[in-house]
């Protein structure tokens, strides 16, 4: 496959998967701007991987992209965790009449935001992306038992938060 064919294949892949990747990224990041940055960084990694001449052909580019997205998110959170501090009080924002679905989505985003990056990734991949324990374990480099344990504890923290 020559360079033009690889580029065309990547563009087709990016168009087909961008919306799914953005949804996963938004669930991980909790905001649109960071999600868009994460998707761009992920697509750049997929592009490089698809264009390497000596690398073996990607068997499942969608799985590679999801794994790259998740690992990029976790790596970025590790780098920033020492320098950023959350605010206790958020600036005032307009309160409107939100639909129940929007309230639920915001509650979910708030609950996910309080989890550690790896726990957040486990919850998103396991329950929102509907991946198996084994798939999540493979993507994150954890044992299946660690995925189950992190899932259980993260969901307990999310439930505890919703009761407050």
Task: Report on the architecture of this protein.
The chain is mainly α. The chain folds into two domains: 1-82, Orthogonal Bundle (Rna Polymerase Sigma Factor, Chain: A); 102-164, Winged helix-like DNA-binding domain superfamily/Winged helix DNA-binding domain (Arc Repressor Mutant, subunit A, Orthogonal Bundle). It has helices at 3-29, 32-51, 61-80, 100-113, 117-128, 133-140, 144-163. The longest helix has 27 residues, at 3-29. The relative contact order is 0.10.
| Estimated radius of gyration | 18 Å
Low-confidence stretches: none
What share of the residues does DSSP label as strand, in percent?
A: under 5%
CATH domain class name of the largest domain: Mainly Alpha
**Overall spatial form:** globular
Q: Spell out the CATH superfamily of the largest domain.
A: RNA polymerase sigma factor, region 2, helix turn helix motif
Which topology of the largest domain does CATH recognise?
Answer: Rna Polymerase Sigma Factor, Chain: A
Q: Structural class from helices and strands?
A: mainly alpha
Mean pLDDT: 84
Number of helices: 7
Short summary:
This protein is mainly α. It is built from seven helices and no strands.
Summary keywords:
mainly alpha; 2 domains; 7 helices
Question: How are the elements arranged and paired?
Answer:
Elements: H1 3-29, H2 32-51, H3 61-80, H4 100-113, H5 117-128, H6 133-140, H7 144-163
Helix pairs in contact: 1-2, 1-3, 2-3, 5-7, 6-7
């Amino acid at each position: 496959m020559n360079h033009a064919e690889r580029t065309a294949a990547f563009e087709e892949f990016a168009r087909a998967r961008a919306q799914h990747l953005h949804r996963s990224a938004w669930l991980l990041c909790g905001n649109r701007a960071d999600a868009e940055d994460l998707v761009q960084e992920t697509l750049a990694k997929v592009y490089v991987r698809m264009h390497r001449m000596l690398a073996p052909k990607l068997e499942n580019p969608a799985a590679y992209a999801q794994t790259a997205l998740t690992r990029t998110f976790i790596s970025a959170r590790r780098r920033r965790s020492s320098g950023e501090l959350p605010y206790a009080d958020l600036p005032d924002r307009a309160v409107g009449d939100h639909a129940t679905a929007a309230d639920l989505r915001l509650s979910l985003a708030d609950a996910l935001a309080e989890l550690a990056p790896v726990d957040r990734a486990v919850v998103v991949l396991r329950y929102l992306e509907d991946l198996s324990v084994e798939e999540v374990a493979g993507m994150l480099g954890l044992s299946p038992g660690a995925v189950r344990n992190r899932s259980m504890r993260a969901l307990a923290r999310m439930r505890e938060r919703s009761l407050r």
